[in-house]
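Fold it.
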Amino acid sequence: MLKALLVDDELKNLDGLEFLLHHDCEDIEVTGKAQNAEEARNFLKLNQVDVIFLDITMPGEDGFQLLDSLNRKDMKIIFVTAHNEYTMQAIKASAVDYLLKPVRIEELHQAVEKVRLTIGSPVAMEQHHMLLQNFMELAIARIPVKKIAVPQLGSIRFVALDEIVSLQADNNYTIIHLKDMQKLVISKTLKDFEELLDKSVFVRIHKSYMVNLNYIKEYSTIDGGVVKMADGNQWSISRRQLDIFLEKMKLATIMFGKSK
């Protein structure tokens, strides 16, 4: 049985999440609830938990300050947060686990299952801790995302965005094509990357493809539109995305005859 601590400054959020965990998730028990960082710390001094469902934005000490004060690697953190541009970018770039408010049952099921698979694996817990540290550095300093964290078997690879040539959808996975010809298969959808990446550089040209404008070698009008990338790949442009693509290319390219 997994033991959980819920931390949120709003009582209705605590009660609502506890209700969902109790009635809709198996083998997890809410052993504590806290409305601020101090309450959470006091609870953890006397109790062991497997997972903390943690709100980030709280009055006084926020979720980051609480984590900073704990310095523990023996439990999983799942952030429960409202949408915030900087926070969500940092979360997605760092691949840490999160739930958006209001919490959806199917996403809660997935989060609990991930905890169940992680607990008892020292390698997985160390990975989680590294991702957590990366996330906190990005989110606290509000540093623009320049790398994404890619968890792999026994390690985490940090991929610089300017190394990504294109991204290719593969059902619920995405294949990342790098400039050194390597490929990475990531368990995120292309839409996840579309929401994360800089839209002035990375452009969705098709339901299955997104390209880095800096690596486009040639654009051909054959068969409705094809881009040839610096790594040799060729991707079709859908009709509905063609005008958007051409407009982005015009903004990103210096052309003869272009007005100043």
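The longest helix spans residues 122-141.
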